[in-house]
Design a protein that fits this description.
Elements: H1 5-10, H2 22-31, E1 39-43, H3 49-58, E2 61-66, H4 69-81, E3 88-92, E4 104-110, H5 119-127, E5 130-143, H6 150-155, H7 167-176, E6 179-186, H8 189-209, H9 216-232, H10 234-237, E7 238-247
Length: 248
C-alpha cells in the first residue's frame, strides 16, 4: 500500500508537506495551549513534523497514520532524532475510516481531507476519535482570490472553481457544520514557496541520479513547467490555512 510514487519522489526531502512553515507550525502548537500528556491524532501525518515537534515542545502524546511508506519511515526517524520516539507512534496505513481506541484531545487532518471524502466527512471522521471539548484541526486550501475563469482554476490544479471556497465561505461552512472556529494559522506566499519550490531542487537532483527511471520523463516535464505554472496560478490564487474547531 502506498501513495502514487511521484509524490514520494517530489516530496522526499520535505519535512512538512504543506505550505505551512516550521515557524507557523510552532505558532499553531503554542496557539492551541497544549497541555503535556494531551493525545493528538493526525490522519495523513506525512513525515511527522507536527507530532514530533509538538511532542518535544509541549509534551503531547501522538499517533499519526499515513499511507506513504517513505514518509512514515521518515516520521519515525524524526521522532528518534528529536528524542520523542517514546511519545509518538507512526502507523503506515490507510487513514480512511480510522477511529482511535483512546479519545484524543486534538484530532487533526492537515492537508489531506480527501481521507474523509472532503472537509465535512473528515470532520465527522475526526469527531469519532475526539474526547469531550476536544479540538479538531483541519488544514485546507481556499481561494485567496476567486479565479476569473475555470482555466485559471485548472492552472491551480483544481478541477473547477467549485473545488474550493473563499476564506469567508470556508469559515462559514465550519459554522454550518456546528463548529466554532477557535483558532487559525494561515500560510502565506513564502510558505507556498517552501512547499512548492522545494520540490524543484528535489526533482532536479533526482533526475541526475535516476536518468533511466520510468518516471524520469514525467519528472523532467514537471520540473520544466512547474515554476511557471506555480507563480502564475497557485501562488496568486490559492490560500491555505489550519483551522481549529470545537463543537458548539
Ligand atoms: N499532514 C502532513 C502531510 C500532508 S500531505 C503535513 O502537513 O506535512 C498529505 C499526506 O496524506 C501525505 O503524507 C500522504 O501520504 C497522505 N495520504 C494520502 N492518502 C492517504 C490515506 N488514504 N491515508 C493516510 N494517509 C494518506
Amino acid at each position: 500500500m502506498d501513495i502514487p510514487r511521484i509524490f514520494n519522489i517530489t516530496e522526499s526531502a520535505h519535512r512538512i508537506h504543506n505550505p505551512i512553515t516550521p515557524e507557523k507550525l510552532a505558532t499553531l502548537g503554542a496557539a492551541l495551549r497544549l497541555k503535556p500528556g494531551t493525545r493528538v491524532l493526525d490522519l495523513g501525518s506525512g513525515s511527522g513534523e507536527m507530532l514530533c515537534t509538538w511532542a518535544r515542545d509541549h509534551g503531547i502524546i501522538g499517533t499519526g497514520i499515513d499511507m506513504s511508506q517513505l514518509f512514515s519511515e521518515q516520521a519515525k526517524l524524526r521522532a528518534e532524532e528529536l528524542g520523542v520516539a517514546d511519545r509518538v507512534e507512526f502507523i503506515h496505513g490507510d487513514a480512511a475510516g480510522y477511529v482511535a481506541d483512546e479519545k484524543a484531545g486534538v484530532a487533526a487532518c492537515v492537508g489531506a481531507s480527501w481521507i474523509g471524502g472532503g472537509v465535512a466527512g473528515t470532520i465527522g471522521l475526526l469527531a469519532k476519535s475526539l474526547g469531550a471539548n476536544g479540538i479538531i484541526l483541519i488544514g485546507e486550501p481556499y481561494w485567496r482570490q476567486l479565479p476569473p475563469t475555470e482555466e485559471v482554476a485548472r492552472g491551480c490544479l483544481a478541477h473547477s472553481i467549485s473545488d474550493f471556497l473563499t476564506l469567508p465561505e470556508l469559515i462559514a461552512s465550519f459554522g454550518h457544520l456546528g463548529y466554532d472556529v477557535v483558532e487559525m494559522v494561515q500560510a502565506d506566499q513564502d510558505g507556498w514557496d517552501r512547499y512548492e519550490a522545494a520540490k524543484w531542487l528535489t526533482m532536479r537532483l533526482w533526475l541526475e541520479a535516476n536518468p533511466d527511471d520510468e518516471l524520469a520523463q514525467e519528472v523532467r516535464a514537471q520540473l520544466t513547467s512547474e515554476p511557471g505554472r506555480y507563480v502564475t496560478y497557485t501562488r496568486e490564487y490559492l490560500g491555505w490555512g489550519v483551522f481549529a474547531l470545537m463543537a458548539r
